[in-house]
Input
Amino acid sequence: MNKFLHRMFNVGVLMKGVNGILEIAGGALVLTIKTSTLIGIILILTQQELIEDPHDVVATMLRHTVNSITESSKTFGGVYLIAHGASNVFLAVGLLQRRLWSYPASIVFLCIFIGYQLYRITLHHSIVLMVVTGLDIIIVFLIWKEYIAVKSKIA
Output
């Protein structure tokens, strides 16, 4: 396999693993923090930005999103983050250890989430989600190329 693609595979998988750890921590935080506290934190964090630029897209989006948080959506979000993060960490460890089962499992897992993310994009047109989805598509490609290279060395 091309050395550049192999390096990109390692970087991408490491990023997915680190992101998974952060998702687990974020999910645990979301589950333990009160909804009113979460709303207050977002309002404080966006206040200065909106004073400087009342039309700031990110700050406005965050405030709009946080105002629609319900207890059940917060619970879903926390559980989703923990499950997604744990899966990413588990699969990243398998990929970095070159476990053959982890390549197709990771591709299937990522494709399911890419499908879900594409569905969410059609509903909300999120630029951040589009970027994340694009990166996930690149990671799937790199995993597939690495899988082919690893299998050819075994055969």
